[in-house]
Design a protein that fits this description.
The complex is a heterodimer. Chain A is an all-alpha fold. Chain A contains 7 helices and 1 strand; from the N terminus they run αααααααβ. By secondary structure, chain B is α/β, with parallel strands linked by helices. In chain B, the strands form 4 sheets. In chain B, strands 1, 2, 3, 9, 10, 11, 12 and 21 form an 8-stranded mixed beta sheet that branches. Classes of the chains: A mainly alpha, B alpha/beta.
């Protein structure tokens, strides 16, 4: 149970940053906290540890970076919406590679969640997706084709 | 009458299988070799790390693709002085499920180079490669993309074709292994229409019909060596969703073990198996590429048409460039587009007006692959200055081509340049920074790590097709290719695997082993 609580807390934190990176813009919908949080939680449950580590590290960088991006020595969590937007934008194009990389990580996951949202796809004039089946084939047998030569050298 | 078996994830008792040949990997190389050996009458067992998914199982979303199709959610990267994503498939059919179905014949200059510089003799002669590529094209329904098929070709591909031909450059509709392509631009996610002739639709079923066995969800941990001979492989099933480890498996090979675990997998697997060679993991190469998006006043709808329809090898020999159209899913465009916040969502609003064209470089950089933490491949790769210069030329050329077609701006995705360039700002692109970290690269065509050649100091596989120092152990995938190609490698990998498997079958018959 504690792991689920931790997962939910991490999902909420990460989804907050993703919503800041993909906000509404006029007719184009952005990410919403609740649905993003649910999707991030699913990702955390299924993704390998390396990816989760990368996401959490990127979130930490995003929270701590305002001092570098906009010169405000406060965590991004305390920024106003306008300042947060400016911080996100500056971090994405910052000259420091190792500051851009965490942003790229967040954008990759955030972009995947944003781009699959039906509201977004409809607003952009694209076909919405069906859900992912997540299925695969189990055991099966195939009767050998008698017209084929299967009695080889062995 | 014998039966073919597909054996998927299981827990509990260990599983044992015996076959004449065991083939590790089910992509272009592995499935081709397995098929040729099965047709020669051998019992073949194929072992694949990922699950077997049919068209109806393919994911819709990009997160679904990351989870269900890419190894480790796409976390595989090459590291040098920058981080370069590696695109590969981990499922039955391997890369053939997620590639753009491009079939390009092996250029003659490559075959000459292999013969001249790597001592391959007539192993891959022009005639031999041509003969099997004729057959492969017939079997996989290879055809030119139909430009007149409207939405099936796609406006983005059509515009690139017109733009390059307008500049009197060589450009052509791609030859692809598709049957009834509907132009859904979803090759990368796996073709849900079953149009792309990936190997799990044709060759692997035929191996089963010939009494073969396929193990899926079965990553191989080691090749078993006994008295200097490869006698089988061992590993443990892994659940495709939870990644929980299941039963152990062992596949005994009476005649030989054939590795086709890709340029990132084969070298580390040989290393884990105790094979020692100064060339192991070395000579790792790639075609790194970067895209430039053109934004048009009219709707382009790159999501209608072939994922990749047009290619140009006009500058293949002088600059090592390959120019192509490419449809990248919205989700990936969102990650790649510069900026964040309201600025970013605003920049994505015109997605239907965007066309993406890419430049890939026949890079001269040479990297290495080795077994990293927890057995995952660790790739070191750093494009050279000359590679960067060539990439910059290719991207500049494509940007000009976009403007020829009436684009109002281009988005090169280069840090240090304005996000968007107009026609009068092309000079900025020509002076773009020559540093890996400034560019948004992707590595899609990978080569080497266990290359073939006549010198054991520079090659892992000898011209007798065996790994140096180990009898009956062979490599038939891109890992064996000693150079890059400058064209899409799928057709070459298939032809090389065919010829190697054919020779193995013939050698067996003549009592070679």
């Amino acid at each position: 149970m504690p792991i689920r609580v931790l997962n939910r807390a991490i999902s909420q934190a990460i989804s907050w940053s993703l919503c800041a990176i993909f906000p509404d813009n006029g007719p184009i919908p952005g990410l919403t906290r609740q649905s993003t949080c649910d999707r991030v939680e699913q990702v955390l449950q299924e993704a390998p540890a390396l990816l989760i580590l990368g996401l959490v590290g990127s979130w930490v960088a995003f929270v701590l970076a305002p001092v570098v991006t906009i010169g405000w020595p406060v965590p991004a969590l305390l920024l106003s919406n306008a300042a947060l937007d400016r911080h996100a934008s500056k971090m994405a194009s910052h000259p420091w590679y190792w500051l851009r990389q965490p942003m790229l990580m967040l954008k990759t996951v955030g972009g995947a969640i944003w781009g699959e949202r039906p509201e977004v796809r409809i607003a952009l004039g694209l076909q919405p997706f069906d859900s992912d089946p997540g299925t695969w084939r189990g055991d099966f047998e195939v009767q050998a084709d008698s017209s084929m030569n299967n009695s080889g050298p062995s | 009458m014998s039966q073919g078996h597909h054996l998927a994830y299981r827990s509990g008792q260990p599983l044992s299988v015996v076959a004449d040949y065991v083939v590790v990997g089910t992509g272009a190389g592995g499935s081709m070799a397995a098929l040729i050996l099965a047709r020669a009458g051998y019992q073949v067992a194929m072992v694949e790390a990922g699950p077997w998914r049919e068209a109806k199982d393919y994911p819709e979303t990009m997160l679904g693709v990351m989870r269900d199709v890419f190894p480790d959610w796409g976390a595989n990267v090459a590291v040098g002085n920058s981080i370069l994503p590696i695109v590969q498939g981990r499922l039955v059919g391997g890369g053939t499920v997620i590639n753009s179905a491009i079939m390009v014949r092996t250029p003659d200059d490559v075959l000459v180079e292999w013969q001249r510089d790597h001592g391959l003799g007539d192993l891959f002669s022009h005639d031999a490669v041509g003969r099997v590529q004729d057959e492969i094209e017939r079997e996989l329904s290879v055809e030119d993309s139909k430009v007149d098929a409207g939405a099936h070709f796609g406006r983005s591909s059509q515009m690139l074709l017109e733009a390059l031909q307008g500049r009197e450059m060589e450009a052509h509709p791609m030859r692809r292994n598709v049957k009834g392509c509907q132009g859904s631009a979803r090759c990368l996610q796996g073709c849900r229409h079953g149009a792309k002739q990936s190997t799990q639709l044709n060759w692997i079923p035929e191996v089963l019909e010939r009494g073969g066995t396929v193990l899926s969800c079965a990553p191989v941990s080691r090749v078993e060596l006994k008295s200097g001979r490869a006698v089988g492989v061992i590993g443990r099933f892994v659940h495709p969703q939870t990644r929980v480890k299941g039963a152990h498996f062992a596949v005994e090979a009476r005649r030989g073990v054939i590795l086709a675990a890709s340029a990132t997998g084969t070298g580390p697997l040989l290393e884990a198996s105790g094979v020692r060679s100064p060339a192991l993991g070395q000579y790792w190469r790639a075609h790194p590429g970067a895209g430039v998006i053109g934004v048009y006043p009219d709707v382009v709808d790159m999501y209608k048409g072939a994922t990749q329809g047009t290619a140009s090898i006009h500058h293949r020999k002088d600059l090592g460039l390959k120019l192509e159209s490419l449809t990248l899913p919205l989700e990936l465009v969102a990650g790649r587009t510069g900026g964040a916040g309201r600025q970013l969502t605003g920049r994505l609003a015109d997605i239907r007006h965007q066309a993406m064209w890419i430049s890939a470089v026949r890079a001269e950089a040479v990297g290495r692959v080795k077994r990293g933490l927890f057995g995952a491949p660790s790739v070191y790769y750093r494009p050279t200055q000359r590679d960067l210069e060539r990439l910059r030329k290719g991207v500049s050329l494509l940007a000009r081509a976009h403007f020829d077609q009436g684009a109002r701006s281009v988005r090169p995705g280069v840090v240090g340049l304005p996000f968007e360039l107009g026609p009068d700002q092309l000079h900025l692109l020509q002076q773009a920074p020559l540093h890996n970290r400034a560019w948004t690269w992707v590595l899609s065509h990978l080569f080497g790590g266990a290359v073939i050649g006549d010198d054991p100091r520079r090659a892992v596989v000898g011209t007798d097709l065996q790994v140096y120092g180990v009898r009956d152990l062979h490599v038939v995938c891109a890992a064996a290719l000693p150079t890059t190609l400058g064209v899409n490698p799928q057709h070459t990998i298939m032809a090389v695997a065919w010829l190697m498997a054919e020779r193995l079958a013939n050698q067996d018959r003549s009592g070679y082993t």
